[in-house]
């Protein structure tokens, strides 16, 4: 046998080796092992260390909090390497700084650096500041499951007690992590003081509080030795019942003890409600197995459970549900319903199973395609090569540490269409050798692999070069995309090795019956091939026809690109997903009491009862719903207050409803807004984003020299967005004006009365806000039973009511009215900062004809740019960076636009890198500067299919579409390389240029057509997936257009370039 190249040597070594079937078996077993052992999740794990730092400064205004604690700590935290963003908010008495590190920074290392920085800078805390509280947050803190307990029989307090019992059992589950209970009322001993009686006994609320604290104590006092035994001593006794609290002596009057019962009403009950949770049923409740009165809101509590890092969400969820079932009838009464209102383990399982089925379908479809074109024997070879390659890629995912989620599985589906290319090219060439040569089958198979080996290696690395740069996309989108280039690149490497090791082995055994060994008959061209030869001959030799064809291709390309200009194809980061849940965020006017907020929220719940796709909903009043990844980034878990509420809306399963969740969100938005407008509230419908979450779809960050300037311009931006068609849920991060009564203490009068100013402030805190002054010590209780001190509502409803409070001084009781002076004003607003600059956020969403933020921004761009500013300077509107200076008012667009900008910028740079890498590879192989340009020329032709394809399907051109375009560059170049390499080989054998290029097109057309069809068939299975539709359309339509056009375009361009070279070289020789 003649000297063999790299691929030929590998094929020769394994084509008759007993190791080959063992390699196949081992690969498949390792793949099955990887599928079983890799944790399953719906979304990829994104490592983004995020930490909240709470900085208390009691009694201080937002401005003072910002200047005294927030700014000094921001300066120190900004020094930490790896910090990408610093967000802060300064509220009355509290500052919160959120530190977000760069994506991919190690969580533990980042936390250590942050803790060190905070703890080593305690000295910058001013007097009166509290201890900084550092609370890290990550995607692992997002609850994967929520269980809502509800019943027509039991009240909030009973359900809370039951939920606590259940929590204790759920915590024992494998890999269960943080659990939290939302709603319900806890047990509390309420001490309701009587101000006149206190005054009559010469007592104050502070003295009662001190008596409760000091009379509820026990300490280990030590020990003594008696009779050679050590006796332990404990002194004091705890309060263990409400009767004991009543009998507590709180003072002495006229030589007699004053009991707490003499000056207060003591009751052992539940705390005053500061939150409510209700369960409501929608029209789809029966489909979910829920029964009850559809017009009633049931008292409810919700238990949320997170999982440990790296745990399999599906297994954890299944284990939790088994525990709940085991508790029914034992801990959970039969008349208490437990509804699963979130199960990310189940959705992960469903999505994984769906994508695994799609992967199987894609592999089967490609195998059938090959069988139809080349016979069942060739199809059988492909049926072995594809699963072996996928199995090895799955193993790599497992070893790298990826989870099995929709992105990693999609990467495998995406790979099927391109990884089969190597097998197709090798099988087709072996088939051609068997049918067109008289070599022995073994030698023919090895020769076929050897002939196609070098261009296949080059083509494989060209595809990898086109895919791998996508792995360097930055920001939050990077981890979402990274499994695609990593998985596809590994799959391509494995497919090349399998094509050289496994494919010849089975092709030799399955297809040698097709060999023409010993035959002298030459196969005839098919009619299609004969037509191609004739047509290409005319096109190459007829100058007018040739130029007309190339001009027509250019016109088609320009017409296709014009679809973006005319908005027939619109650009968006990612399309809308189809989820089974929505979240409604309600902000009643500041100052709205809890009961009024409950009325607004329940009325919105009534509106949801008319939406047929709603199965159930939970009303969270005064608190937030269990947060998801979106809520983690938006800090929804900090939402707590009497004027705030959330509604968790659960929809029927996707296969039980016609509309997608986005269409349902658009339908319910006006229903909820009508209720909100009625009460002056603000409402937002928050959909779970398909990719990385952001503060909002539209975010305008307004910067400026002072709060008044920022707020003034932000209000105008808010008004512009509110009246812009297609922009909805417009809001801003600024509270409504809320009336505040300030009771200023007359220091001189207080000093003369012998009463410290602090005592006055603490007394009023107890009277109005109440204070927990201790615990009822009940070891069997699952939750702390607090003792709360407060005045009755009738004695704290106005400033005049507070006049009845007296404070004891050295010279007798002093009425509070003599020490304080009441003034009325407005509560100060929360101040926000981002990366050390003061900012006001204006947010909005898009829902209309064109639902992409870039077009909404273009609509309002000129109007915002023309806004007047307080100093008369022109407002600076920026797209990607903060204003350099805060001297004048400036604005930056953020939100989904920022991620869109970053991703398309990075993908554009990746595409540029792809072009350079492919050019270098092809130059190195062909040792020519112009031939690579011919090979790469068809890349833009994919747009002739991609853009019209998006317009035809009515789909956004998204980041996944861009990925498809970039990946196609490698696939197209691969086919061009194989075609040109064959033409060059024929020219080296002495064939004329025109005949060589026509022969190459005729011979290589079938593998080109097969690889193109494999891409189309492999992509078709995901064309209806809401997230990956863009990529599927790009791959399918782009491949159809490029395969159709490149078979003609490449030979024509190659002929033009090479004939010009021949003429140019001829002139040089003549000279």
TrEMBL record:
<dbReference type="Pfam" id="PF00873">
    <property type="entry name" value="ACR_tran"/>
</dbReference>
<feature type="transmembrane region" description="Helical">
    <location>
        <begin position="484"/>
        <end position="508"/>
    </location>
</feature>
<dbReference type="GO" id="GO:0042910">
    <property type="term" value="F:xenobiotic transmembrane transporter activity"/>
</dbReference>
<feature type="transmembrane region" description="Helical">
    <location>
        <begin position="355"/>
        <end position="373"/>
    </location>
</feature>
<feature type="transmembrane region" description="Helical">
    <location>
        <begin position="962"/>
        <end position="982"/>
    </location>
</feature>
<keyword id="KW-0812">Transmembrane</keyword>
<keyword id="KW-1133">Transmembrane helix</keyword>
<dbReference type="GO" id="GO:0005886">
    <property type="term" value="C:plasma membrane"/>
</dbReference>
<feature type="transmembrane region" description="Helical">
    <location>
        <begin position="907"/>
        <end position="926"/>
    </location>
</feature>
<feature type="transmembrane region" description="Helical">
    <location>
        <begin position="1003"/>
        <end position="1024"/>
    </location>
</feature>
<keyword id="KW-0472">Membrane</keyword>
<feature type="transmembrane region" description="Helical">
    <location>
        <begin position="380"/>
        <end position="401"/>
    </location>
</feature>
<feature type="transmembrane region" description="Helical">
    <location>
        <begin position="407"/>
        <end position="427"/>
    </location>
</feature>
<feature type="transmembrane region" description="Helical">
    <location>
        <begin position="457"/>
        <end position="478"/>
    </location>
</feature>
<feature type="transmembrane region" description="Helical">
    <location>
        <begin position="543"/>
        <end position="566"/>
    </location>
</feature>
<dbReference type="InterPro" id="IPR027463">
    <property type="entry name" value="AcrB_DN_DC_subdom"/>
</dbReference>
<protein>
    <submittedName>
        <fullName>Efflux RND transporter permease subunit</fullName>
    </submittedName>
</protein>
<dbReference type="InterPro" id="IPR001036">
    <property type="entry name" value="Acrflvin-R"/>
</dbReference>
